[in-house]
Amino acid sequence: MKSIVSNTLTQEFRNYNRLYFLVKDLLDFIKKIYSRNPVNDLKKCLADEKARYQFVIRAGTDTEVLWNDGRQSKTEPVYKRSIEFDQNHPKRMKQSKDPFEAALEEQEESPPNSPVGEDELNSQTPNEPQNQTNGGHNLLVDDDDYDEIGPNVKNSSHPSSTSTSKLHSTIVNANVATGATTKNKEYDDDEEEENMEVELSKFPSSADPTKMAKMQAILSQFTEDQMSRYESFRRSALQRSNMRRLLVSITGSQKISLPMTIVVCGIAKMFVGELVEKARIVMTERKESGPIRPCHIREAYRRLKIEGKVPKRSVQRLFR
Amino acid sequence: MMYGFGDDPNPLPETVALVEDIVVEYVTDMAHKAQDIGSKRGKLSVEDFLYLIRKDLPKLNRCTELLSMQEELKQARKAFEVDEEKLGTLE
Description:
Chain A is mainly alpha-helical and about 325 residues long. Helix content of chain A is about 55%, strand content about 5%. In chain B, helix 2 (about 15-40) crosses helix 3 (about 45-50). Chain B folds into two domains: about 10-55; about 55-90. With about 90 residues, chain B is mainly α. In chain B, about 30% of the residues are buried. In chain B, about 80% of the residues lie in helices and about 0% in strands. Classes of the chains: A mainly alpha (about 325), B mainly alpha (about 90).
């Protein structure tokens, strides 16, 4: 998968990075489990007679690991599910000390590991007692995950605790991701533009560990302001339904495929990015500050036209 | 979206309206051009849009990435559905 070569000013938002990898991990993991045939294998993996799987949900400072029973239609794994509480589940982490801090700290240092995460999830249940003891040792978790990437070699730890710590990280990632998701739904409501939608499926793809490491290094340095801006950058998207309607009205043909709407939404979003960035450049040249004004946008648009980034109309617009 | 790309947290409404206008015009022009290209082949396809942005590397890479990600998610979802069925029959 090609990495993004984008000249936008803002950097990647780590929660979305995490969420993407978590989703990818979960899907990969599930795919991997189900690709094995024997029932016993499955049962052993899932360690549950009904073959349910676990997921994590967080409300406030309480963290719970729950079993999930059944799934609706083709929705995204972390997001919409039929939830079933299992009060007797041994892995209930409500007693964990300040999980949010732990999650935050861990997130800053440890990137998720796509290939490794699956195996750790497999060995989840047997490793429970160790996981609980590891609950307080977040630095250990960070070190292990960071070790995978390479740059900072810290303490290497016991293999079984390594696995649980990675599991911990994946689970905690889910926590923060879920938390971030709900937080952002409210954030998006304040947006002015009509065509906004929280698009969770558009993530950066790079599975390249060096790039991941670089990304994590950059993301950890972000201020609150930068982080929120980055989050807005990653989460915002044009609505596919509206785009589809627009394309149908333009082309006159009803057959607009889904990939086409996705591509056009992506192109349009990047075009907005180019406009806004160029407008900011114009503003600095004129030594102005504050919100971008229409004159800046028009100047930016004019410059883009000169650069050839805007398709020219073959037929002139006579009436405007 | 504009905040994400560098504008104020509260962009001016006239700026937003202008940007929306420009983007709609951009998409319209692109779609017309793509249709022109596509008409030679018969029908409109994704390839036409990709051809149009071939010179613009960031956009091209982003689009190929979006498409491959969509494929991946589709595969994963399909695999999940198939296995759920299998699981259902096992029960």
